[in-house]
Amino acid sequence: MKILILGMDGYIGWSLALRQLRLGNEVCGVDNFSRRKAVEEMGSWSAVPILPMQKRLEILKKEHGGKVSFHEGDLVDQKFTDDVIKTFKPDTIVHLAEQPSAPYSMIDQNHAVYTQSNNVVGTLNVLYSQKNHVPRAHLIKLGTMGEYGYGNDIDITEGFMEIEFRGKKTVIPYPRMAGSWYHWSKVHDSNNIMFACKLWNLTSTDIMQGIVYGTRIREMEDEPKMTRFDFDEVFGTVINRYCSQAVIGHPLTVYGQGGQTRGFLALEDSIQCITILINNPPDPGEYRVVNQFDEQYRVSELADRVKRIGDKKGLGVEIKRVENPRLEKEEHYYKADHEHLKKLGFKPTRHIDDEINIMLDDLAVFKERIQAKKDSIIKIVRWNDGLKQSMASPAVSYKT
Amino acid sequence: MKILILGMDGYIGWSLALRQLRLGNEVCGVDNFSRRKAVEEMGSWSAVPILPMQKRLEILKKEHGGKVSFHEGDLVDQKFTDDVIKTFKPDTIVHLAEQPSAPYSMIDQNHAVYTQSNNVVGTLNVLYSQKNHVPRAHLIKLGTMGEYGYGNDIDITEGFMEIEFRGKKTVIPYPRMAGSWYHWSKVHDSNNIMFACKLWNLTSTDIMQGIVYGTRIREMEDEPKMTRFDFDEVFGTVINRYCSQAVIGHPLTVYGQGGQTRGFLALEDSIQCITILINNPPDPGEYRVVNQFDEQYRVSELADRVKRIGDKKGLGVEIKRVENPRLEKEEHYYKADHEHLKKLGFKPTRHIDDEINIMLDDLAVFKERIQAKKDSIIKIVRWNDGLKQSMASPAVSYKT
């Protein structure tokens, strides 16, 4: 199968490329390296050192020969996107190539506009190229559980729900109540993709993914094959950040009460899920939504787990509650369906405690790299007034 | 009161400026003249000749002196938008300055991307400037009833609805199921505005407006004060197009079965509604949605009305069913609440038949102008494959 991975240089993109190549698929990757640039803009870097793409490709080509290719470019560049899709003619497009950070989108006006414009325009361009050149391909788009929001009083369904209103039954899209400009950009994308499927009979799976954690998947036995790992406040996600903090003796920073409940998933299982989706496309013309996570946890409970496991390793982990920079409920009802992937065969393979254990060991090796960019751990973006220090424009321009 | 009218050169913007000045308010207008350029791009012009803005302003200044001002510029230009709002410090911002045509957004990829990027970025810039300089101002944003879509099996509420799901009650945003890239751009805006109100405690009214028709409001006694009137397939709305077709002896072009039901509103009553909203802002920090229309009609019924009234004037009106270029149901359930404005005092003042009567007389004066651009009446954009003739980029660039 021919798989186009948009955002192949990223945390999930690189992991997915390794997996798909091992499975014998042909992989074409695309990236504009915006993640590397934006993390640098935040004064940080990946805890795990990653090679430049050219070197990464050399490693892959040694093993997989002509089955891997790569194009540097930006999806907001219509001609670039169109040329790649027209030439490669993928069976599956996995679209991971978006500005992926909520705090980054809340830094200031420039970052908000960049995030929405970049994500919406990039996805529109992919949809048009899919329609024009590979109308029977399967578009797998990475969204987030955050599209639904976390203040709902009712259960969260998978994309759609049946309701009765004024005596009549109907099916509606599950209401989206996102909590940042970034999360809303994903909602805008979801709406555009749903419309494109209806308009042009395209086929798509929209993944509402939980928060991914972990340093590795099984294909990463050698260090040069490892994927990036962000620990800064802006691009690091919560478990990854806690583990990095634990390793350098920094208190784990829990926002407010810590009752924020989210769905989580190990990197290994995220890659398993995406692989299942690649192998099980929906019916032609269907817009399918899946909720992709394993277990739900409160963030304070995650800090407790990292502390317990870290303390066993002699790390002497402290937990510190800090003022919550976000606009979110710190205690709330949360119950989200996640049956679609299970029905397709998803079986979680990683237990969170085992994974935290591995992460702490992996990160211990790169302790000095985390220490060197320690300031980026507390570079807090406040939802109501952005980042206090003055910021230039985003590292990557949204001009086309 | 100080009222900023974004899009003051447009059909509603110009009318609203005349009304607010007559009521003694101070008006500052903004426009980038994109509507004039885009209608020209479609090979058409306003049936009613309109003066350049400088001349329009001279007329207003003669009557209202320093109470009116104007700035030419584009809302996607962050500095421009910020300067205008910082300097004028409006009490109310009426935001009408968007790409307003569904068919225009469906022409091709460039026009789709332009529409979404222009509308979303312009509105984001307005929200940031409001927050930074006039956080207690009231933002009135023009959306459309089309955001809800027309294929719903259930009644349409005003923005939000209470539902019971799995035994629990909650209030959710009414699901949006738009039918063009343009309509989705308005949904994206609505979502962003709802979030901004929550995030920064801003105050906003989001108008889900029906389709507006009519050539004039009472302030337009002299021709130079009349507002633009589009009759081409892309920018002309349905009643306005039918009346223009009737005047030049062109058959009224009804799409498919003509059972498409929509809410409608005379221009005079649209201006009445916006004035009511200006004078009755919601509570500080509230995001209010109003459904702004008078009556619901099927489009075939509208064609019959125009024929009946036109025939009395000896126009010999024909009706022709044409293949529907849009992706929409031609027969469907439609029942939309519209109580909020009535509760605030809205009383429709125009009957549709009287208004059609006036329109046909007004347009008879400009018959030759319509005749001269007759080709633009059948410049049909098909939803599934755009405009057949090759198109350049949009008349107005979306680059910033």
Describe the structure.
Two copies of one chain form a homodimer. In chain A, a hairpin with a 2-residue loop joins strand 6 (160-165) and strand 7 (168-173). Chain A has one domain (2-378): Rossmann fold, CATH 3.40.50. Chain A has helices spanning 11-22, 34-41, 53-64, 78-88, 102-105, 109-133, 181-200, 238-247, 267-279, 299-312, 340-343, 352-365, 367-372; strands spanning 2-6, 26-31, 68-72, 92-95, 138-144, 160-165, 168-173, 203-209, 211-213, 252-255, 261-266, 287-292, 295-298, 319-322. Chain A has 400 residues and is α/β, with parallel strands linked by helices. Chains A and B meet through helix 6, strand 6, strand 7 and helix 7 of A and helix 6, strand 6, strand 7 and helix 7 of B.
Key phrases:
homodimer; 400 residues; alpha/beta; Rossmann fold; 3-stranded mixed beta sheet; 13 helices; 38% helix; 18% strand; globular
Percentage of residues in strands of chain A: 15-25%
Work out the helicity level of chain A.
25-40%
Biggest interface goes to: A-B, 46 and 46 residues
Number of domains of chain A: 1
Largest sheet of chain A: 7 strands, parallel
Return Rg of chain A in Å. Answer: 20 Å
The count of β-strands of chain A is 14
CATH topology-level name of chain A: Rossmann fold
Mean pLDDT over the residues of chain A: 96
Query: Any low-confidence stretches of chain A, pLDDT <50, length ≥5?
Result: none
Which structural category fits the helices and strands of chain A?
Answer: alpha/beta
Determine the N-to-C terminus distance of chain A. 32 Å
CATH class of chain A: Alpha Beta
CATH homologous superfamily grouping of chain A: NAD(P)-binding Rossmann-like Domain
Indicate the overall shape of chain A. globular
- Identify the CATH architecture of chain A: 3-Layer(aba) Sandwich
Tally of alpha and pi helices of chain A: 13
Oligomer: homodimer
